[in-house]
Design brief:
The structure is a homodimer. By secondary structure, chain A is α+β, with helices and mostly antiparallel strands. Chain A has 2 domains: about 60 residues, Arc Repressor Mutant, subunit A (Orthogonal Bundle), CATH 1.10.10.10; about 55 residues, Dna Ligase, domain 1. Chain A contains 5 helices and 6 strands; from the N terminus they run αααββββαββα. In chain A, the strands form 2 sheets. A 3-stranded mixed beta sheet of chain A has the order 4-3-6. Chain A has a two-stranded antiparallel sheet with strand order 1-2. In chain A, α1 crosses α2 and α2 packs across α3. The termini of chain A are far apart. Chain A binds a DNA duplex (25 and 25 nucleotides) through α3.
Chain lengths: ~130, ~130
DNA sequence: CTGCATGCAAAGGGTTTGCACCGGC
DNA sequence: GCCGGTGCAAACCCTTTGCATGCAG
């Protein structure tokens, strides 16, 4: 997860981190871009993507590869789980009763060496519920 | 899941279904296209996409929205789970010991009305394991 | 015949990348 | 000053769509 290559804290990178930390919403790259642009109007979307990628590769933030949707980013790099609103795509953290492990639930791994679970809950967020 | 609009069994649609049934690999749209093209050389990729979409909307096949990857299609429309190879992306069915429900594992849904789980196991497929 | 399905090609959305310049350290 | 980071724009990949034509029922 960590690399030894030099790592420069540019103003762009710092601002991206700050905005990501300030957002509880697990924003998409474009949402991060829009927020950061208010403070650094000349930043480019490419820079946002490159930084989110770099920060995720170093384990500073977490990349959420949403099934069939836009990628989102999470300031909290610790392993945890999410609910995603099936209407608007909003993502929020959830807490499990007990940790879940593959061999707890898996009967037959079909010849694969299982190394993890990708799990996400689907739901309807408060805003979308009241909107109906 | 079902629609009342007329549903024509064209040769393209039939061939796509047959090839999907014959493939145990949960192929991507392009993989289906390549297979079908051997039998119907003039078929277009757009037709494959449209048919896979239509068939999924009618519950005849299942669309697998893979996190951070290409969409895949499953001939079996029943709810079941998959392992995905983190190296080559191959997908295979797995069997669970017991069914899993959201409120079994979820402590705090964070205000969401939870309607489902999206779950996928990650692993290394036999082919990639022996290749290492 | 009717109107859904097709082939083709162009457009679309999200993400990545090549390149010359910029600026942390 | 070195070399990683940036802005810009073009390229990229996968998927969707508009349109005229084809063909199943």
């Amino acid at each position: 997860m960590e690399s030894n290559r030099a790592f420069r804290m540019t103003s762009q990178r710092r601002t991206i981190l700050e905005e990501l930390k300030g957002a509880m919403t697990h924003p998409t790259a474009d949402e991060v871009y829009q927020r950061v642009r208010r403070r650094l109007p000349r930043i480019s979307l490419g820079t946002v993507y490159r930084n989110l990628e770099t920060l995720a590769a170093r384990g500073i933030i977490r990349k959420l590869d949403v099934p069939g949707g836009q990628r989102r980013f999470d300031f909290n790099p610790e392993l945890h789980y999410h609910v995603r609103c099936v209407h608007c795509g909003a993502v929020r953290d959830v807490v499990l009763k007990v940790p879940i492990s593959p061999d707890q639930v898996l009967k037959d791994p079909g010849g694969f060496e299982v190394v993890g679970i990708q799990m996400e809950f689907l739901g309807i967020c408060p805003a979308c519920r009241s909107r109906q």
